[in-house]
From TrEMBL:
The name this protein goes by in its record: Histidinol dehydrogenase
Superkingdom of source: Bacteria
Pfam families in UniProt: Histidinol_dh
Record bears the keyword Oxidoreductase: yes
Alphabetized UniProt keyword annotations: Oxidoreductase
UniProt entry tagged with the keyword Oxidoreductase: yes
Length: 87
């Protein structure tokens, strides 16, 4: 109906008319609570099969990228799976 105003959004409804500048409007919206939150990601492999599937690729890519420490972390996990388990 067109009864809302900018004041409604700024002071009560929650949306905001503060828009991005310097061309950022091409990839982001206006200011919101999300603008002040930090996104955190994480990952987990729960099975030996997961390590066996992923680690060899990590080793290969790390070698190509000349990142020996990354290569070592994956290779060590593979090697740990080769050890006999104690019963």
């Amino acid at each position: 109906m067109g009864w809302t105003t900018v004041a409604f959004s700024d002071k009560a409804i929650g949306t905001n008319h503060v828009l991005p500048t310097a061309g950022a409007g091409r990839y982001t919206g206006g200011l919101s609570v999300a603008s002040f939150l930090k996104t955190v990601t994480w990952q987990r492999i729960d099975t030996d099969e997961g390590i066996r599937m992923i680690a060899p690729h990590v080793v290969t890519i790390s070698q190509a990228d000349l990142m020996p420490a990354h290569e070592a972390t994956a290779a060590k996990r593979l090697k740990r799976l080769e050890r006999p388990t104690r019963g």
